[in-house]
Amino acid sequence: EGEDYNTLEHQLAKCAIENKIVELVLGASLHREVVHRSIPFIEFLALMCNRDVPVESGEATQPGPNAYCLQKSHLLLAWKTCTSKADVAVSDEIYHLLVSILPSLPDSLAIPLLQVVQESLEDTKQDLVFEVAEFCAALASHTPSELKDPNLSLLSEEVRAVVLNLLWGVLTHPEASSLKPYEILKRYVANELGIEPFGRRHREKFLKACTQTLSSNARQQQNVGADEILALRMVKLTQFVLNACPREQAEEIITADKGSLASLIFNELTAYLSRRKDDITMSPSQRKTSNLSSSESLLLNDMSPLPERLGILRYVYGISEGIRLSTNQLQHLWALCSIPSDREELMVFVASASTGASGARGALSDQQDSMQVEGPQNSNDGLTAAFSNDVRSSAFVDLMCSEKVDWGVLGERAYRSFQSMFKRLGQTQGAPTKAALNALWRICLTAGNEIVASQSMKDLLSVYSAMANTSRNQNSAWSAGPPNPSTDRMLTDEEDNDFGKRVFDCLVQVKKGLDAGDVSSERSAERCLRILNAAVGQDGSTGRSVTTSAIASLNKLVPQPTLANVVGLLPHGMRGQAGYRRIGIMVKRTSQNISQNQDQSTNHRQGSTKRFFIDVHPLETLASVKTKVSQECQCRVGSVKPISVSGRLTGSSRGASGDSTQMSLNIQPDDSTVDQLGIVHGCEMVFLIQDRQAQTSATAQPKPHIQKTSVLDLNKMFSDNRAGFANKMFETLLSVLEALPWRVEGSRVVNGSKTHKLVWDLLLAMPTNKEVVEKVHVAAGLEFDGSNKDKTIEDVVMGDSSVDQWSSLLDKQNYQRSVYVLQTIDACLQPAPELLSSLHKQTRSELEEVMSTDALAFRKGFIGSGGFDAVVSFFSTFGNEQKQRRRRMGDAAALRILKCCLFGNSRFVSTPENSESGTLDVMGSRLLESLSSVEGLLRSLTAMVVGDEGISTSTISDVLKFLRLLFFSPKTTETFVSLPDRMAEQFLITLLLWEGDPEVTRSATIASAKIRESMHDLILQIALLARHALPWLIGAL
Q1: Could you report the per-residue pLDDT of 912-946, keeping only the tens digit for each?
Q2: How far apart are CA 723 and CA 721, in angstroms?
Q3: CA-based nearest residue to 346, from 421, 436, 449, 252
Q4: In 3D, which of 594, 669, 595, 674 has the Cα closest to residue 628?
Q5: CB 382 within 8 A of CB 320
Q6: Confidence category of residue 655, pLDDT binned at 50, 70, 90
Q7: Bridge partners of 684?
Q8: What does the buried/exposed string (b/e) look like for 376-392 if buried means 16 or more CB atoms within 10 Å of the residue's CB?
Q9: Which helix (H) or strand (E) holds 664?
């Protein structure tokens, strides 16, 4: 019988044990390579433990079965080596060795080893958490493949239970968050917890441990002595254990004891917020004397624990519909989340928790793109809504829509949540609530985040558009059915749906704030004006434009409209020739089209391509442009075929210079307008003149335009005469314009110009104020009714009343209003006949004749009543405190008026071709002789160029034309060169080096070259100017 224990394996094992080879291998004095190469040998000794009969204790008796095998003392020695911190590399090899032999060890050896490791973890005298974690990581990651699948594990259930307890001890250790293999251990534990019925027992055990810790933390409201890192980890581990549960068990746990676990997690969250609030409000000296560690304080002030806790709260309350958050709970959280970052996180939570997995997309309108917001997003997959519809409505109306919410400090994620809740509320109640609409207005006007402001404006217009469209079709606010009687108190009424009145009220409040010096009112003014500009399509963001609305209004006119009917519908900025856009034209002729009667030299000089410039109006049709080209080229209109246009505007800001985008005009209808084609200042159009008639007949009547669906019918609002609303809107805008501050550093405007421009953009988009038009005509001694045909300048007698009227209209104390009056005068003097091009041919001809008659009569009346002198006085007498950029618009309008009075309107009267050189008509000659003092006029003309680097090339051209006329008098030239502050010298040098607009286009380059050439010629023409110019030029060089 003894021979059974005398095999080669027994002899080898006996040799190893007696010679203490295991002690040498597992001791701390050897190299890691020795340990690595000894792994098969140690595994052999481990197998010898069960070679004969199962070992009942940790030590075998000698001699007898299993007398020589791996023993408990060997394993303890190995672990002692690992914890000695002598050699990390040796420790790593031993971890691998122990994990490798663990399946081969009997429970009597495996369990004591694991218990020793567990004791090391709990040893407060030695810091061995790192070593325990490394051993557990090796167990979880580097074990044989059968250990990774718990169903195939060779470990006994008792050993697996001890391993699981060990790993849970590591996960819950106070220092576990800093451990690198933390997630690896979690995955291993998750696999083990998923095995039934083994996992169920441990899930319940671990969950009980979590609830005990949560209960303790929930009772701790003060920020002294709390381990916030561990507290957060225990909340996350609670969700971790619930995730490991089957859905049925999770629901059972959550709903047990009337949802005690869910309430516990909520209470733990409120306790954390209370501790955090105390820490935020604690002074540095108080924090220094408190027991709070620096790491705990940092964590309290860190924002990440809150969204993580809210995400867990969302998960817990979304597992079962039997447990819901109440209104009181949400209000309690809202009160605790008082700082902006907390408030924003809570809003995200409320929006996410208000719906289940199939919730609606977070946007107010399906047509609007919701904002792209970076950051973690809560997933609602498989979760139900965390509260009822009534609680959701209360949370949105009473919390998110509260007037106490400061949107000046909230960001994109908060507004995205508001969007989502707003839409869901509209879907369930059939209409936006009054509180929601008020909140949306506040967001637009006060949001500190520019992205939020822009998106909220789009949403606001979308909401009003939806309400207006549905109101027209169904006489209700939204189409989702009648409102819920229980929420009827919140629904919008007809007054709330009136966009114009709401904007007007906002502007009134803005004006009061500006008068009181409230800085925030400046931002509110800018936002309110942006909303209005977007609503009328002035910024192009709504897919429509002012031109589209104007054309649609013209198409709705009665069959035989008067000129007053027509211009009363047009935007103020499009009534006159000031709205012209100068573009380049390139005409290509076919070889057969060149006249056969021309001699060879003429033919060579003209060639087959011709270039020139024309002025086009935004409302002018393509057919009208073709007519201008045919007149310039002296050919039939039917022979002119548009080919393409380059330099078009494809952005959202109308009136700016274009880019290089090119568009084919072959398929564009003749009734397409300049603005609809994207043609702006500096564009170039290419035409082809061919022998055969173009397919589109020149006599074909334009097809009626079909207006695109607009956001709102703002034209109707601006023309609303109920209780003088249109005039009140106009007066309010002007008062806001006058109240807006200008902040200037040196000669540069650093603030205010953007908001001023928004007001002017809106004023130019509105129809001209009727009261201003009437006052201008009355001051000129005329009637705005077409009855001025036979009046001459002698019929208008200038009296004191006329002078007083012009002084009142052009009041230097109300500069912005005076600029508007100047623009109105300019439009009356120089109306644009092209704006009639979309009308029927006969109607257009009749109205053009009336327009020409009225323009000529107005010029006579304006000059005869003293209007010319009033404009000269207004233009010439501003002091140096008036910054030139502020005067740019007014100076340009005044200059156009003076030029028209002197030279006449070339659109309606025949003027000599050399008028550019200064030839005047009879009326202009009289006016020039009547100028008594020109020094103020010269100073203003010069300052326009010297003091404003943004002046347009066309305005400079008008300045040079005016100066050329004035310089015919030597005395005037002497006055010019003697202007103070070297103004004349700066004027000459500036224009001789003029580069023009920053947009480099062919037309801009040609226009700039023409300015330099005109200045050069003017110097050579005026001898006195040439004598002074030479030293100025030498000084400039």
Answers
A1: 443 444 567 788 888 888 877 788 888 888 888 88
A2: 6
A3: 421
A4: 674
A5: no
A6: very low
A7: 584, 646
A8: eebebeebbbbbeeebb
A9: strand 661-664
